[in-house]
Recover the amino acids of this structure.
């Protein structure tokens, strides 16, 4: 299959993992992962939504660390297309994985990958489920106290199209089914009541006539 990847988008949790890593050499090793020879020809981006996730309720020192880190990569703003795809992705997860909505930030990052044909760099594959995303590459970093597993995920455009089609059909059928459950029994019950009242009135009328 032809490689249709036009770059990499870094999930917020990757940056969090880097900053939480205090050992300089270990941190450098993780960052260098993005320059791995398997990925070196790909431009690296992050989503604007990452600012919200990284800078919310952070102290000045931590914010500066994130600012320095983000300067190394390109930034992709959230446009209408990405927002719509984020909604579709969230719906697909909700309908087909029996799961409540994924976090808005994760759906936006995933949607950015779909909209721009980017691979996702993440430390949490639970946020990007198969078959909507498939693992292309995995790297595990180990130091004395911890390990970090980093995944490179490819968005599956065909799976997304199939899921969206099924999702919309499922939603339509579910809505109609729920409407039938609510409306039809009520209509039938009203008719039965009207017929019963009419029958009772006829009985009473015959009794009076007798």
């Amino acid at each position: 299959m032809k490689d249709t990847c036009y770059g990499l988008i870094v999930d917020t949790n990757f940056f969090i993992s880097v900053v939480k890593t205090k050992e300089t050499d270990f941190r450098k090793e993780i960052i260098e992962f993005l320059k791995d020879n398997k990925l070196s020809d790909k431009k690296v981006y992050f989503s604007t939504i990452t600012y919200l996730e990284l800078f919310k309720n952070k102290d000045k020192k931590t914010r500066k660390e994130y600012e320095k880190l983000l300067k190394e990569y390109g930034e992709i703003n959230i446009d209408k297309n990405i927002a719509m795809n984020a909604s579709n992705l969230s719906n697909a997860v909700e309908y087909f994985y029996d799961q409540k909505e994924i976090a808005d930030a994760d759906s936006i990052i995933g949607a950015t990958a779909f909209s721009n044909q980017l691979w996702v760099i993440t430390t949490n594959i639970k946020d990007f489920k198969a078959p909507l995303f498939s693992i292309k590459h995995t790297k595990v970093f180990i130091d004395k106290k911890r390990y970090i597993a980093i995944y490179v995920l490819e968005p599956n455009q065909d799976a997304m199209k199939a899921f969206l089609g099924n999702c919309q059909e499922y939603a339509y059928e579910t809505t109609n089914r729920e409407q039938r459950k609510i409306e039809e029994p009520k209509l039938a019950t009203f008719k039965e009541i009207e017929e019963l009242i009419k029958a009772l009135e006829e009985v009473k009328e015959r009794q009076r006539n007798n």
